[in-house]
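for the recovery benchmark. tokens below, seq after
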């Protein structure tokens, strides 16, 4: 599916009308600047955690937070930790003061759409952490929910399966097969129509194509 980059300004207006706080960044460097100069001081974060997001990693925000010894981080990715320990950390991340991640798709009328394997990312987005920050490339903006589902099933999910070297049918063909693979990453959907309470979720829209 070819992707058409829709207007960031129109998307911001739609998201704002739905109760989200929205910022527009020129590029990943500007997104990092917005986070540290505008968002982080406002949320007055204590405990910080995150879920997987290539877009977030491209901004350099996560690396800078991890390098700051004054910020307490729940490390949900750690090659030295056993799988059981990682799952427990991801459970604890749902109680963080600040939760960072990305988004699979944003509709032109301001709905956030995500799909997860185990649900820790959409769990944190929906409830638990006091504040949430989502980093979203312009390529994630789609016209409607049908386009969001199609984008996630036939682009984001297969590419993520390939990236993680999962032996799923979509990793081989590049399209969804609605499979029963033990490594299936498409298990739990989330659609945020509105932000509740208003302002809990901050969305940083980044001009250009970033992430999958």
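predicted aa per position
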């Amino acid at each position: 599916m070819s992707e058409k980059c829709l207007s960031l300004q129109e998307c911001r207006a739609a998201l704002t009308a739905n109760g989200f706080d929205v910022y527009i960044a020129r590029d990943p460097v500007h997104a990092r600047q917005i986070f540290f100069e505008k968002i982080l001081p406002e949320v007055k974060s204590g405990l910080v955690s995150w879920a997987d997001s290539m877009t977030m990693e491209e901004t350099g925000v996560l690396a800078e937070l991890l390098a700051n010894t004054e910020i307490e981080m729940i490390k949900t990715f750690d090659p030295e930790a056993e799988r059981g320990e990682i799952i427990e950390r991801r459970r604890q991340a749902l109680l963080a003061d600040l939760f960072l991640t990305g988004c699979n798709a944003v509709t032109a009328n301001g709905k956030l759409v995500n799909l997860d394997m185990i649900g820790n990312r959409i769990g944190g987005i929906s409830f638990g952490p006091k504040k949430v920050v989502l980093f979203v490339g312009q390529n994630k903006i789609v016209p409607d929910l049908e386009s969001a589902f199609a984008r996630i099933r036939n682009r984001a999910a297969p590419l993520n399966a390939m990236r993680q070297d999962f032996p799923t049918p979509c990793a081989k063909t590049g399209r969804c097969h609605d499979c029963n693979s033990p490594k299936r990453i498409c298990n739990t959907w989330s659609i945020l129509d509105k932000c509740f309470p208003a302002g809990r979720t901050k969305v940083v829209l980044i001009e250009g194509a970033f992430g999958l």
